[in-house]
């Protein structure tokens, strides 16, 4: 019995010794892995959309293709805009015709008619004048009554008024439209031109062009689909405007400061080291707290969004790639 107890004790001591030996070796050779902060590469993306509704008639660029500023990317088919353009053109032609008519004044036939009416009134006035002078002479010699003299005088006065009216009609026909009429006709032409220019701008909007140099990152509708005003059609990614975005707990910020640089690695590029410069830091709000407050003195560790840009161009660096920063 005593021998068995000694054997158990020896086994127990051996196990304890082995455990201690393993712990000592682990303590000597254990190399803790550094804490890694992971970020992701991002780039500016411009969304292509149109001001007018229409159907996708043709795509001029596919996903992944490079494009230059001003390249036509999408052609829309919008019959409504073309119909409005025809209406605007017709209205402009009508306004121009009216303006030309006002500028030219009366036609030669109208001018001739007004002149003949004036001459007719002049002849009638001359006859009325002579008749009045004869009757007046006879009245002075007491040959005719005062009633006859008054009638002749009234007819003479009436013919004077008729001659003045006919002469005014002739002068108006000869001088053309009034200044106000000309200004109104010119304003109608300008208004029609503005309507045409407006519809032409809508027609131009059926040809969507790239506002930047970049690469097509995504297309949304298919050819033949109807798209509304402002609906996204495709995205153009600017690979010259890239940055790395990190979400870092505040107690891990360490040496990360605005305007300063730090080193990170890109796993997708064989762990290539890059130097990044911090250009943006902002807390993500209380909803992004990592730890809740406890009575033990711990605090709410908030998360900060940090953006950093490479200090030099990195070949092969693309949005979506991971970027690692070691503490």
Automatic annotation (TrEMBL):
The keyword Transferase does not apply. InterPro entries: BSH_CzcB-like. Keywords: Membrane, Transmembrane, Transmembrane helix. Residues 45-238 form the CzcB-like barrel-sandwich hybrid domain. The chain crosses the membrane at residues 9-30. Pfam families: BSH_CzcB. This is CzcB-like barrel-sandwich hybrid domain-containing protein. It comes from Odoribacter laneus YIT 12061.
């Amino acid at each position: 019995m005593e021998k068995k107890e000694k054997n158990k004790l020896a086994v127990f001591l051996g196990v304890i010794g082995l455990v201690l030996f393993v712990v000592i070796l682990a303590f000597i050779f254990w190399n803790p892995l550094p804490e890694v902060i992971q970020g992701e590469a991002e780039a500016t993306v411009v969304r292509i959309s149109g001001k007018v509704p229409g159907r996708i008639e043709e795509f001029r660029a596919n996903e992944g293709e490079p494009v230059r500023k001003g390249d036509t990317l999408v052609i829309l088919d919008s019959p409504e805009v073309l119909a409005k353009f025809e209406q605007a053109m017709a209205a402009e032609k009508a306004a121009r015709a009216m303006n030309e008519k006002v500028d030219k004044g009366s036609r030669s036939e109208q001018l001739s008619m007004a002149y003949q009416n004036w001459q007719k009134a002049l002849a009638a006035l001359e006859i009325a004048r002579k008749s009045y002078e004869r009757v007046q002479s006879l009245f002075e010699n007491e040959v005719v009554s005062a009633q006859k003299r008054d009638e002749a005088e009234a007819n003479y006065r009436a013919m004077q008024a008729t001659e003045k009216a006919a002469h005014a009609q002739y002068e108006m026909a000869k001088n053309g439209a009034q200044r106000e009429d000309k200004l109104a006709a010119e304003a109608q032409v300008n208004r029609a031109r503005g309507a045409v220019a407006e519809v032409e701008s809508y027609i131009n909007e059926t040809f969507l062009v790239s506002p930047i140099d970049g690469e097509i990152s995504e297309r949304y509708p298919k050819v033949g689909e109807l798209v509304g005003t402002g609906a996204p059609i495709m995205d153009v990614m600017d690979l010259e405007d890239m940055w790395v975005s990190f979400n870092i707990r505040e107690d891990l910020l360490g040496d990360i400061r605005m305007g300063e640089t730090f080193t990170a690695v890109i796993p997708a590029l064989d762990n290539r080291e890059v130097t990044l410069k911090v250009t943006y830091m902002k807390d993500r709000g209380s909803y992004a707290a990592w730890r809740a407050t406890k009575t033990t003195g711990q605090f709410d560790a908030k998360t900060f969004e940090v953006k950093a840009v490479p200090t030099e161009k990195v070949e092969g660096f693309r949005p979506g790639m991971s970027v690692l920063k070691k503490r």
